[in-house]
Design brief:
By secondary structure, this protein is an alpha/beta fold. The chain folds into two domains: about 210 residues, Aldolase class I (TIM Barrel); about 30 residues. It contains eleven helices and ten strands. It has an eight-stranded parallel beta barrel, surrounded by six helices. A two-stranded antiparallel ribbon has the order 9-10. Strand 9 and strand 10 form a beta hairpin. The two termini are about 40 Å apart.
């Protein structure tokens, strides 16, 4: 399978404006996501200004920005403002607040009022089912399954994502995102599961050129890397002298 034959859409995940604009120049990047953690790491200080700059630079592909309040009434106000930043903007709403109270009622109100919602931080099929139910009949929206975090617990996320896609089929306006991937293989797992979108950090996007790479060639490159690093470090072993 090649990059051009993939049905799953690739969304760039990050918060560095220059990088986002650079990826925007690649037509196979079909959308963008970010979150407060990525924004903090990127040094963003003014949320509103950053977001408006992103939307101005990328006006015609889906972009998800996240609310950050822990109160549902404030989340709703933030979501409505964020939605006004552009017709291509999706509002990330966490599946619960920090005490575990579900956000499905808020998600339903926002979706029915015309806000494009991206329900985020979901890890269970029960959460997906409730979110899809809340979004049904509303505007186009996403449900984001943090498949990488599921895998971090030793569970295989593929069956969960596959079942989530089947659940979302009952609501044509809802699409499923494979979020928090850990490796390039996840792209092909998401494809096989019928997932609509997978988010990818810059590090993972940089590995796309490895798709289909000859493994013997890759093996030789790895051997050369180890040798070069040993020489660069000036390693020696007693009685054997310095590496040359």
């Amino acid at each position: 399978m090649t990059l051009s034959s993939l049905k799953v859409e690739l969304f760039a995940d990050g918060a560095a404006l220059e990088e986002m604009v650079a990826w925007y120049g690649r037509p196979w990047i079909r959308g963008f996501t970010t979150n407060p953690t990525l924004m903090r790491k990127a040094g963003v200080r003014d949320y509103r200004r950053f977001a408006r700059e992103v939307v101005a630079a990328i006006p015609d592909r889906p972009i998800s920005f996240e609310v950050f309040s822990d109160r549902f009434d404030e989340m709703e106000c933030q979501a409505k403002e964020i939605a006004e930043w552009g017709a291509n903007v999706y509002v990330k709403v966490p599946v619960t607040d920090t005490t575990g109270r579900p956000s499905y009622d808020l998600v339903h109100r926002l979706s029915q009022s015309g806000v494009h919602v991206n329900v985020t931080a979901m890890l269970t099929l029960a959460q997906v089912a409730r979110a899809v139910e809340a979004l049904a009949g509303g505007t186009s929206s996403f449900v984001s399954i943090f498949a990488g975090r599921i895998a971090d617990t030793g569970r295989d996320p593929v069956p969960i994502v596959r079942d989530a896609v089947a659940t979302a089929a009952s609501a044509p306006s809802v699409r499923v995102i494979w979020a928090s991937p850990r490796e390039l293989l996840n792209v092909f797992q998401a494809e096989a599961a019928g997932c609509h979108v997978i988010t990818m950090t810059t590090d993972l996007l940089g590995k796309l050129s490895l798709i289909g790479k000859d493994l013997d060639e890759f093996s030789l490159e790895t051997v050369k890397m180890f040798r070069a690093d040993a020489l660069s470090a000036g390693f020696t072993l007693s009685g054997l002298g310095q590496l040359t």
